[in-house]
UniProtKB/TrEMBL annotation:
This is Pentapeptide repeat-containing protein. It comes from Paenarthrobacter nitroguajacolicus (Arthrobacter nitroguajacolicus). Pfam families: Pentapeptide. The lineage of its organism: Bacteria, Bacillati, Actinomycetota, Actinomycetes, Micrococcales. Transmembrane segments: none annotated. SUPFAM superfamilies: Pentapeptide repeat-like (SSF141571). InterPro entries: 5peptide_repeat, Pentapeptide-BTB/POZ_domain.
Amino acid sequence: MAAVKVAAPKISPVRLDELRDDDAPDFQRGERYDGVRFTKVSADGEELSGSDFIECEFNGVSFNEAQLRGATFRECILAEPYAPVFTAARSSWQDVEISNPRWGSAELYEGNWRSVRIDGGKLDYVNLRGSKLMDVQISDCIINELDLGNCAGTRVALKNCTIGTLDVTGAKLKDVDLRTSEFRGINGLAGLAGVIIDDYQLSLMAPLLAGHLGIRVV
């Protein structure tokens, strides 16, 4: 059998030079922050809807209950971001690296992600419903619930992740690589069209697929 060619996410490393340190930022709604390094600061509860973060670095920044609706992160690095409640619906992420996030409920629905990498971390609930994802890689994460319902995803890879429930109801996926990751449950099996799995995953999914198709195994 000929080997299947898998289209991997196309992600370029983010390189930031000559950043300006800001240890006491005055965050404002709709502002543009360019070339700034934030270290161990709190944005908890801040109103940052529509703000633009361009070529910024965040180290151990807390975003708990910050309002980031419609915000833009472009060419940014986020190391160990923290938020029991992360609210960033309809936000835009392009050329972004996120390492070891600690998010409880992450409301990221109807967002636009392009060339984004998440490495490590523990996430309770990640809501990407209705988002557009292109060239996204999530690796070595523990995610209790990942909601990709009604997503449009192209060249997305989940590598070595442990996921409780994956919801792909109504998703339109192409070249979405789920190999090496584990799932305890999957909702919306019809939305798996366009994903790539391995033989072992197929054997685990067999009862779910049989039930979905109305097949009885006796």
